[in-house]
Design brief:
single chain, 238 residues, alpha/beta, Rossmann fold, four-stranded antiparallel sheet, globular
């Protein structure tokens, strides 16, 4: 469904962000992208969701292809309308808005009963935020804010959900909740490109894994291989 083909990104100052990055997210898959800090994970995410465009940075080589349509250097709303949603690493929620207002802030592709059903599904997925709809999002814990950000993205009924650093800085007890939610999201039909530092959890869910180092994919393959040779996978990451 979503293909990244030999993508290179250079920033406005000429610095190289990533090079020769290729990956494919197929229907019903979890693709895990691993890498150390500064390896190029977030640049890859932003290239794959159109957010580089908003920074004035462009893909200088390669292509982003969605179901056969070239979306290279398209704006974020083009990706969103195509069915790609992203949960960024930082600034996930509007802290002064309530949880309810955050959930409605992105609008909806549908209205009425369909939207209500999606909202109900989100609140069932994340009951921790269901009881706090009228509280300011900034008062939520880090884990609850992540749940809110994922839930808000799901209201658009994306075909592919990209989550950047899902468990970064969160208590290990929250990891279980978030990864269980990812499993249920995929079972409901949404594919996921997941960037996460919790490699052990991610490997349990992933169908395919990619390792990025110094802006370049250095290892890629079925998750079974990474699970069978965890030491090799870790060595490639770091």
């Amino acid at each position: 469904m979503l293909e990244v083909r030999d993508v290179e990104v250079r920033y406005r100052n000429g610095a190289l962000g990533v090079k020769n990055v290729s990956l494919v997210v197929e229907q019903g898959q979890v693709v895990a992208l691993f890498g150390a800090n500064g390896a190029g994970k977030t640049t890859t995410v932003r290239a794959t969701s159109g957010f580089l465009h908003s920074e004035g940075t462009k893909i200088t080589r390669g292509r982003i292809v969605w179901n056969g349509t070239d979306l290279t250097n398209s704006e974020p709303h083009v990706f969103a309308r195509a069915g790609v949603a992203v949960v960024p690493e930082r600034k996930k929620v509007f802290p002064k808005l309530t949880v309810r207002e955050n959930l409605s802030s992105m609008g909806s592709a549908v209205s009425g009963r369909a939207h209500a059903e999606r909202l109900l599904n989100v609140l069932e997925l994340f009951p921790a935020i269901a009881t706090r709809l009228d509280e300011a999002a900034g008062r939520l814990s880090g884990g609850e804010q992540q749940m809110l950000a994922i839930g808000r993205a799901l209201l658009r009924d994306p075909k592919v959900l990209i989550i950047d650093e899902m468990t970064l800085g969160l208590h290990p007890s929250v990891h279980v909740i978030l990864f269980d939610a990812v499993r249920r999201i995929v079972e409901a039909g949404t594919s996921i490109l997941l960037v996460d530092e919790s490699m052990a959890f991610a490997l349990k869910l992933a169908d395919h894994c990619c390792v990025i180092r110094s802006g370049e994919i250095v290892d890629s393959g079925p998750a079974e291989r990474f699970r069978a040779d965890h030491e090799r996978a870790m060595a490639n990451v770091f």
